[in-house]
User: Which sequence fits this backbone?
């Protein structure tokens, strides 16, 4: 399979990237915008996410119902997502519906008319309330605040209800016009598509839209971050706990070593955390590690959900595993298994046109090199045991870990951190 992408930058600044996948009848199409919660001021907290919702409410040409009926009639999937640095609106449909799907999706993204805004305010406020009732999700935002403080990277993507309930349409439209400008946009497609056809559709869609946005870049990530403890009190059956620290930027070549390291530490069922915390001791149902990448920074973290009486033991085990992997590194057997795991998951995901489109859109938007599958697999194969050990010592040193929790009381969690990072106790 030829997975070499084609890229065209149009005079307006919008970039088009496609990947033709032979013998596939589907097309995954996405509009990627270089804006997210990191681009908001405090008074705009949640505006990127709210705007994403409003794109589905209608344009001058298509009502909300017509948008829904159009994609339903094609048997298509259509959705959107907002992150800290990006917003994406995407669909997957049969190749014979390309022109119709593109027309509607482009109009939604480029020319929203903001009807029925008050009803959607209530929808998003309900979403925020639902999120507040999900402590296993909430704790990750508490961790981001512990790591990045009041920097935009430390604020929740979902935003604040008071902003959503009061932001005026002219302010929303101004934010859209500034951030959804051609030079802030990537159009990505994968599947049964021809590059020149997508380019032609993009040219037509952007007629009459001025080139250049002048949108300001994000506030630089903090260069130095002191570990902190943040706790959100809420009556829960379990304590939902995270440890984490700054990680690697998107374009860092060590990201392949980090994927391998994450797989060994907590990103697979044979990982150290899963085996030691769940399988051997039964201290948790859910325990895992993860990594996030930003333009100029990143984050590593781990999560465990456990009952109050197990908090101390779970933290002791996790602290031990962190010290072991940072001091002693990993074994040859772990390295081989993790590399094959990463390669297998990557290859399987690339059989999805949606996954391919996501890779194309996000990579080009963030100026990360577009690698073929073979190039990615070679980069994973090149990861050495020394690479993994050095990265573990740099990123997962318990002394640099911040901590976050959601539960009934911070006392037991605070005491349990003595076995992980005693420095945190002074920041509580």
Assistant:
């Amino acid at each position: 399979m030829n997975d070499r992408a084609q890229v065209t930058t149009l005079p307006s600044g919008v970039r088009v990237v496609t990947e033709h996948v032979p013998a596939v009848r589907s097309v995954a199409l996405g509009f990627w915008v270089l804006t997210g919660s990191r681009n908001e001021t405090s008074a705009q907290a949640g505006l990127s996410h709210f705007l994403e919702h409003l794109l589905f409410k209608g344009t001058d040409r298509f009502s909300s119902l017509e948008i829904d009926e159009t994609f339903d009639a094609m048997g298509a999937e259509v959705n959107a997502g907002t992150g800290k640095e990006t917003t994406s609106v995407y669909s997957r449909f049969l190749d014979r519906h390309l022109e119709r799907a593109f027309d509607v999706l482009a109009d939604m993204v480029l020319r929203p008319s903001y009807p029925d805004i008050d009803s959607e305010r209530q929808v998003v406020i309900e979403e925020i309330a639902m999120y507040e009732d999900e402590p296993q999700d909430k704790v990750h935002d508490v961790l981001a605040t512990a790591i990045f403080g009041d920097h935009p990277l430390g604020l929740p993507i979902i935003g604040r209800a008071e902003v959503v309930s009061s932001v005026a349409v002219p302010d929303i439209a101004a934010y859209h016009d500034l951030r959804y400008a051609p030079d802030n946009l990537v159009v990505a497609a994968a599947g049964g598509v021809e590059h020149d056809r997508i380019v032609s559709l993009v040219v037509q869609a952007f007629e009459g839209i001025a080139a250049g946005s002048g949108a300001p870049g994000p506030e630089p990530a903090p260069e130095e971050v002191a570990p902190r403890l943040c706790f959100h009190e809420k009556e829960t059956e379990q304590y939902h706990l995270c440890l984490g620290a700054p990680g690697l930027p998107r374009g860092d070549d060590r990201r392949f070593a980090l994927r391998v390291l994450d797989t060994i530490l907590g990103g697979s069922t044979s990982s150290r955390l899963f085996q030691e915390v769940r399988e051997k001791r039964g201290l948790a149902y859910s325990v895992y590690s993860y990594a996030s990448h930003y333009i100029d920074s990143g984050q590593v973290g781990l999560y465990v959900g456990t009952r109050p009486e197990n908090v101390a033991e779970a933290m002791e085990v996790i602290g031990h595993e962190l010290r072991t992997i940072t001091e002693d590194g990993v074994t040859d057997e772990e390295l081989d298994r993790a590399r094959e795991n990463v390669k297998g998951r990557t290859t399987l995901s690339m059989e999805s046109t949606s996954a391919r489109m996501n890779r194309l859109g996000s990579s080009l938007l963030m100026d990360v090199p577009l690698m073929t599958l073979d190039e990615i697999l070679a980069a994973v194969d090149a990861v050495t045991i020394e690479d993994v050990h050095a990265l573990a010592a740099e990123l997962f040193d318990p002394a640099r870990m911040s901590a976050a929790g959601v539960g009934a009381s911070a006392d037991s969690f605070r005491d349990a951190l003595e076995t992980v990072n005693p420095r945190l106790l002074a920041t509580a």
In short: The mean pLDDT is 95. The chain has 16 helices and eleven strands. The domain at 6-205 is CATH 3.30.830.10 (Cytochrome Bc1 Complex; Chain A, domain 1).
